[in-house]
Design goal:
The complex is a heterotrimer of chains A (594), B (323) and C (302). With 323 residues, chain B is mainly alpha-helical. Chain B is 59% helix and 9% strand. Chain B has 13 helices and 5 strands. In chain B, the strands form 2 sheets. A 3-stranded antiparallel sheet of chain B has the order 1-2-3, with no helix packed on it. In chain B, helix 1 packs across helix 3, helix 3 crosses helix 10 and helix 10 runs antiparallel to helix 13. Chain C has 2 domains: 88 residues, no CATH class; 208 residues, Orthogonal Bundle (MetI-like fold), CATH 1.10.3720.10. Classes of the chains: A alpha+beta (594), B mainly alpha (323), C mainly alpha (302). The interface between A and C is large, with 66 and 53 residues.
Chain lengths: 594, 323, 302
């Protein structure tokens, strides 16, 4: 009966296609008869090892529970997902899923898996693994951080097996970026993890001490060795299911080594000394240092342009306990006046921030969508230059006036001053605060920069609300607006200026709530763009976040490394690790030696 | 000063000059320490060239600006309250003289070194004073009475040494109310550093008192019925003066360095306040050390303080009375 | 007598460690923010998940409860579980502690081997331009906190092309340079103090000089302050290199500890604190024991 149902599916798909239902198989990669994925890009040579530097070591190798960035960086080289987002084009493309069909109402996805795939330990893959994967991610007892991405409209995504190579996903409501949620949901090997899951110990599985034999994945590399505090070594997965144009099986590299070096300056030193091959992200000053260093003549430095990170100044607009912090409540009267915020934004010299803080390697921002996000950026938004006069006019309209020393006072005669919190671990945001401080002095506002440790800062902003203004930055993981929901929904936990509200406090926040919810379920891209443009416009008028700048993505690699294509979304340099290769043999450094 | 050796006189004069310079920072510094010149970032120190023995600075627009003395500049306040606008030297607008270069925001480093000394030296002195007072009190009591008080001192000192001081500072820093001026924040940090630092002087004082109380005249006084407090204050305390002086000379640079270390990890004073620590913090980045050597000039101020204090300490230890 | 003294001190040490553990727990609890603070900021995590994670990590439990749990974990040797790694703290600590000790023990031996002869020599040759120069050099090194030294050393190593990533040369050099000045000054002052003492002056007046003076009179008398100094050096074996390790990328306790503090990974912070406290108390105890054994005056006093 199985074969019959398979034929039935294919006929139905053909009929549905004929009826004009939207079905996509993107053309950027094709599949062979063997169901391997053919990649585009140069064909390379085999061999060699790559040394990549990480700022911290991974905390776990468990894809379901991993929270921190270094863990995800390493895990993503060992795992694969059903549908991937290509980091250069920011479009979805087939991964383990060869093709998929969407129902007309956008609520059902039927994904077809590649045939003949094996995990890195040789065990074959089938639809049961997919079912197990999603069951594990959605299991409330596991507390996966990625579970919330798979809950649409309050309902977890429904997964059912159609046959050995087809899986159907049901959504409770149409979801605009449904394909994108499959990215980074790693396919788990049922034969290794199901037992742990049934015993309720899935969270403990695949910790750093796990022997490599107990791990398997569909990614280009697999775990070879872990040295605590020092490095983690991945070796090539010989069952990897991608080939290049000439039919060579990927990956080209024999192994990748992640070395943990906390200080960026030491990372630069290692790169200059030839001990590391890739610098994933460097600051502007180190980039200039590297450009000047004679020994990095065999280094290829690239300024990939703005990424998706946005840094901003924001004020405390939420409810603060008037008994405990009367001064903050008094100052909120200023912060809550939109003209005050507009004046601050007009007074900030964004050019100076780009020039002084980032050495010119950044883009000034007036909204949270960066220039890198061409698809979603509202290009019609104004980008006014710094204008102290306009700021003064706005303040005058709002009832502020100046005393004879030039200091700004509000209508009741109180001098306008406040503190700006920054994290002690972010040099750049501290520098931005210094620039802004000087700019605000021209308006007669005295500010004080308070550098707090990051956790203490977060506690003040999110929990105790004991702050006046702060400078923070957020990085979108994806160009699509949906991952940012928690920032813009007034009930969201990342709605920094006033998190976790029961009811939106202002009319414009209510409007943004409505628009964001609507765009989440709108399938038509043009309509979604319109809605999101309106969100950006409301944000620009009301300035809950006074956006400042977005740093460029600056990376470095050896000239010898082929197929190096830095992207502006995470992972900037290793997103195509399977395609990287050494043009010439790697030279003096022997494989595996450090 | 007569009985001080040449070395000690040199060191004391050096320290006095430093303190006078720092206290008159407003007058000696040509610019306000927070004034940013955004078109002159990371400039090396201005070169003075002399024409007929008069110093000139080359301006960015090609003109030469003569160095003027007692020039009118930005307003500043003396530490005793009155404000003034006269600076020792400077050049006419729009020229600028940066004798120690500028930082990444175009702020004059010389002005910042002078002004920064105020918070750094104040922190050092305050912390040293606190550590010495606590150490003296505790050491006197423990050394004189001995017994359980002594045990409590020794173990208590070890407890303090063992605490994760970085953590303590993070916590204290995180709790400070936001509206505190940077001066008060620096004060509180100094208090914490000082409190952390009391074990060492305490142990040393204890050692001195242990040997002092065995002296004959102490026994004699006791035989005459003198109270313990009298014995401590009149006989043991004077024995500790030389120790206290050397400890002060030792602790001052140590606590200034503690402030520098704190600034290095981001817990120093925030803008607009400036200290030697916050001036040295950019040296964390090798890119800065390589391309802007003048950013390391504040180190000279710290070295000067340390050297003078070491000379003093040496001197008081080795040329004072024996014993 | 010695046994009683030793037992008494060991008992004190135990009490001290217990006190430090309680204080550390209280301090950590006071520090604002907890492990899940950054998770709350993550736009992809909903509040329900965060609440569930809090429950899982036991962050909702009261402090005495968590302390009791930790004491229990000491019994089975795990010292608590790290939230971030989901592994027992002891498994994370021991390999890195070994690497840290590699650095610090080497630095300790090297700096003592340099400081002893140099200190003795400079105490003997108290005036002269060499002494003045040495004084200036030590002041220079003293004036630079070890962090600045580490950054400067990194810069020099990169510029000169000496930098090698896994070698201990650079960290050990920095550590030696950081501790040498103070050690040198202490040795010098210890030697100088005893040189002025009555029995040594008596020996000199009788014509004893040179090596005999040094080895039979001076050094044994100086053993007192030197023994406490040695104890202090041992005391700092775990804690002195933390920041230097982080800057120079040495895989020891430093990066683990500092990251755990930043992430508020509770038990992973307590673990290294207790380890370094144990070393500190042990080192001071060792110094005092050495004193007891060497110096008869102390025996009478205690």
């Amino acid at each position: 009966m199985k074969r019959d149902s398979g034929i039935y599916i294919r006929v139905t798909c053909a009929v549905l296609l004929a009826l004009g239902v939207f079905a996509r198989t993107p053309a950027c990669a094709e599949s062979t008869a063997d169901d391997l994925l053919i990649t585009h890009g140069e064909s390379g040579r085999y061999g060699g090892s790559l040394v990549v530097l990480e700022r911290a070591e991974p905390k776990t190798l468990n894809p379901v529970t991993a929270l921190d960035a270094p863990s995800r960086d390493v895990i993503r080289r060992m795992m694969a997902d059903l549908i991937s987002i290509n980091r250069r084009t920011l479009e979805t493309e087939p991964s383990v899923a060869k093709s998929w069909v969407v129902s007309r109402d956008g609520r059902q996805y039927v994904l077809e898996l590649r045939r003949g795939l094996r995990f890195s330990d040789g065990h074959p893959v089938d639809a049961e693994d997919i079912l197990f994967t999603f069951r594990a991610y959605l299991d409330e007892a596991v507390h996966s951080p990625q579970r919330d991405l798979l809950v649409i409209g309050g309902q977890p995504i429904g997964v059912e097996k159609v046959d050995a190579t087809h899986v159907r996903f049901r959504l409770s409501q149409p979801y605009a970026a449904a394909e994108r949620i499959f990215d980074s949901v790693a396919i788990l090997p049922r034969h290794l993890l199901e037992k742990a899951w049934r015993e309720g110990k899935l969270g403990d599985a695949w910790s750093l001490n796990t022997p490599p034999a107990e791990m398997a994945g569909l990614g280009p590399f697999q775990l070879k060795e872990y040295v605590p505090g020092d490095k983690i070594v991945l070796s090539k997965n010989k069952y990897y299911w991608k080939v290049d144009q000439k039919g060579n099986r990927l990956p080209y590299l024999d192994q990748i080594e992640f070395h943990f070096v906390p200080a960026e300056d030491t990372q630069v030193a290692q790169f200059i000394a030839g001990e590391a091959d890739i610098l994933n992200r460097v600051g502007a000053r180190n980039f200039d240092l590297l450009s000047g260093e004679a020994r990095t003549k065999d280094g290829h430095l690239e300024d990939a342009g703005p990424g998706l990170e946005y840094n901003f100044l924001f004020f405390n607009l939420g409810q603060v306990d008037a008994q405990r912090f009367p001064e903050i409540v008094a100052r909120q009267a200023w912060f809550r006046d939109v003209r005050f915020r507009q004046a601050i934004s007009a007074a900030v010299d964004r050019d100076a921030i780009v020039r002084l803080v980032y050495g010119g390697r950044a883009s000034a921002l007036w909204g949270h969508v960066t220039p890198a996000n061409r698809v979603w950026l509202n290009a019609a938004l104004p980008k006014p230059a710094q204008s102290i006069e306009r700021a003064r006019r706005l303040l005058q309209d709002a009832g502020f006036r100046w005393n004879e020393d030039g200091g700004l006072m509000d209508a009741s005669g109180k001098p306008v001053q406040f503190s700006i919190l920054v994290s002690s671990s972010s040099l750049e945001r501290g520098q931005m605060a210094t620039v802004i401080q000087e700019d605000l002095k021209k308006l007669g506002i005295q500010t004080q920069v308070v550098s707090l440790e990051f956790r203490a800062l977060l506690d003040r902003v999110l929990n105790s609300r004991q702050y006046e203004a702060s400078i923070l930055g957020l990085v979108s993981g994806d160009a699509d607006p949906n991952p940012e929901m928690n920032v813009w929904l007034s009930s969201g936990g990342s709605h920094l200026w006033n998190p976790s509200q029961n009811q939106p406090m202002t009319a414009w926040e209510a409007e943004i709530d409505r628009l964001m919810r609507q765009q989440m379920t709108t399938l038509d891209h043009a309509h979604r763009k319109q809605l999101y443009d309106r969100v950006q416009q409301i944000a620009a008028e009301n300035l809950p976040l006074i956006c400042l700048a977005s740093p460029n993505i600056l990376v470095a690699a050896r000239k010898n490394l082929g197929n190096f294509q830095p992207a502006v979304v995470d992972h900037y340099t290793l997103w195509n690790a399977e395609q990287l290769y050494w043009r010439q043999p790697a030279g003096a450094r022997a494989q595996g030696a450090r | 000063m007569k009985h001080f050796s040449k070395q000690a006189r040199f060191a004391i004069s050096g320290l006095i000059c430093l303190h006078v310079a720092v206290l008159s920072a407003g007058f000696l510094a040509p610019y306000d320490p927070t004034e940013q010149n955004r078109s002159s970032v990371l400039r090396p120190p201005s070169t003075l060239h002399f024409v007929h023995l008069r110093p000139f600075v080359a301006g960015a627009d090609g003109h030469d600006y003569p160095l003027r003395f007692f020039i009118t500049g930005s307003k500043y306040r003396w530490f005793f309250g009155s404000s003034s606008v006269t600076h020792l030297f400077g050049v006419d607008q729009p020229g600028r003289v940066f004798l120690a270069g500028t930082d990444e925001f175009g702020r004059d480093q010389l002005s910042r070194i002078l002004w920064g000394g105020q918070i750094s030296l104040a922190t050092g002195w305050l912390a040293a004073l606190l550590a010495l007072t606590l150490g003296l009190g505790w050491g006197l009591i423990a050394g004189f009475f001995g017994g359980w008080r002594d045990t409590v001192l020794m173990r208590g000192a070890e407890l303090f040494l063992a605490l994760p001081w970085l953590y303590l500072l993070l916590t204290v820093r995180a709790f400070l109310p936001l509206s505190l001026s940077p001066w008060i924040t620096a004060l509180v940090m100094a208090l914490v550093i000082g409190i952390i630092g009391w074990p060492r002087p305490a142990r040393l004082v204890r050692g001195v008192v242990l040997s002092a109380k065995e002296r004959d005249y102490v026994y004699a006084a006791r035989g005459f019925g003198a109270s313990s407090w009298h014995l401590i204050l009149k006989h043991c305390l004077p024995q500790t003066y030389r120790l206290m002086a050397t400890q002060a000379a030792l602790l001052l640079p140590q606590f200034i360095l503690a402030e520098v270390t704190l600034s290095f990890v981001g817990l120093g004073v925030g803008d607009p306040a400036v200290s030697w620590g916050s001036l040295l913090a950019p040296l964390r980045q090798i890119a800065v050390i390589g391309s802007a050597w003048w950013m390391a000039l504040p180190v000279l101020a710290v070295i000067w303080t340390t050297w003078c204090c070491s000379l003093l300490e040496d001197n008081w230890k080795y040329t004072g009375e024996a014993g | 007598m010695f046994r009683r003294y030793l037992l008494r001190r060991l008992l004190h040490a135990l009490f001290l460690l217990a006190g430090i553990s309680v204080l550390s727990f209280v301090l950590l609890e006071l520090a604002p923010g907890d492990f899940l603070g950054e998770a709350k900021l993550n736009p992809q995590l909903g509040p329900a998940t965060v609440a569930a994670l809090r429950q899982q990590y036991g962050l909702n439990q009261s402090l005495p409860q968590r302390y009791a749990r930790w004491l229990g974990s000491l019994a089975d040797g795990s010292m608590g579980v790290s939230f971030a790694y989901n592994l027992p703290v002891s498994t994370l600590l021991w390999p890195r502690a070994r690497k840290t000790l590699q650095l610090t023990v080497t630095a300790l031996l090297l700096s003592w081997m340099i400081a002893l002869p140099l200190g003795v020599w400079s105490a003997a040759v108290r005036r002269g331009w060499l002494d003045r120069f040495a004084g200036l050099a030590t002041s220079l090194l003293l004036a630079l906190p070890d962090l600045v030294l580490a950054c400067l050393a990194l810069f020099v190593a990169v510029r000169a092309g000496w930098f090698r990533s896994n070698s201990a040369v650079l960290p050990v050099t920095v550590l030696v340079l950081a501790t040498l000045p103070t050690l040198l000054r202490h040795v010098r002052s210890a030697i100088f103090d005893v040189a002025g003492q009555a029995h040594v002056r008596a020996a000199r007046s009788q014509g004893i000089a040179g090596a005999q003076l040094w080895f039979r009179w001076l050094l044994p008398a100086a053993a007192n302050p030197l023994a406490s100094l040695f104890g202090l050096s041992i005391a700092g074996l775990v804690s002195s290199s933390l920041l230097v390790e982080t800057i120079l990328g040495w895989p020891g306790l430093g990066p683990l500890f500092l990251e755990a503090i930043a992430a508020r990974d509770f038990y992973l912070v307590i673990g290294p604190v207790m380890l370094s406290a144990a070393f500190l108390i042990g080192g001071l105890l060792l110094g005092d024991l050495l004193l007891y054994l060497i110096d008869p005056r102390i025996r009478i006093q205690t």
